[in-house]
Amino acid sequence: MRLLLVEDDVMVASGIKLGLCDAGYAVDWVGSAERALEAAHAEAFDAAIVDIGLPKMDGLALTAALRAAGRTFPVLILTARDALQDRVQGLDLGADDYMLKPFELPELLARLRALLRRSQAATSAVLGFGPLEMDTAHRQVHVAGTLLELGPREWTVLEYLLLQAPKPAAKDKLLQALTGWDKEITPNAIEVYISRLRSKLEPSGVVLRAIRGFGYRLELAAQAGAPAHDGH
User: Fold this and answer.
1) Is the domain covering 126-224 a CATH 1.10.10.10 domain?
2) Is the pLDDT of residue 226 over 60?
């Protein structure tokens, strides 16, 4: 999942970004609302974390501008302001959640997971597909009851595939979910993570099928009735 972090305090932003990256998210950080709007226009994000107290245009105005521009990804507002009016205004302008500073990282991550589930029409922290179960709260994946060891990017790819299942996931969306501005991943690198996941999933009957010219889809071997993949 790719996140946009909008925070003008460098130390605060660094701490939040580190915690989010450790949790497996790709994070792009900007220090102003103006740069955030540019980023949202140029890139595809799954959610944004926005501080209210930004220079020039504040976080509330940014949220309204994002919605006016048709950006529908979840927005989580962070602020030191605890007035009811500020919270109501932020939600009315299109924010999806609101957290007061100071906050604990585990709560931020939990609220973010809830927003992402809601945006993907998922209702539980546990994503399932046949014998495959991913517990996003506890960062564990089981297939046919066996715990799988996944690297951070394997986790991200599998989470995105599960959120899309049974529909296919576009390869370019997978790439965007894996990388931020400060990292470079070639489109062919997706195939490396897909190959690793296939080797871990297919013995238990979960197939990762390549949809030529589009991306990948999770299927069950018993239902596939065809070779596991028709390309890379």
Assistant:
1) yes
2) no
